[in-house]
Amino acid sequence: MNKLPNDRGNRKWTSLFIPEHRERLQEWILAQDDIPRPILGTDQLDELNYAIHQHLQDHQPVTISYYKNKRIQRLRGILHSCDPHARVLVVYDIDYEPVRIQLADILSIAP
Question: pTM of the prediction?
Answer without folding.
Answer: 0.69
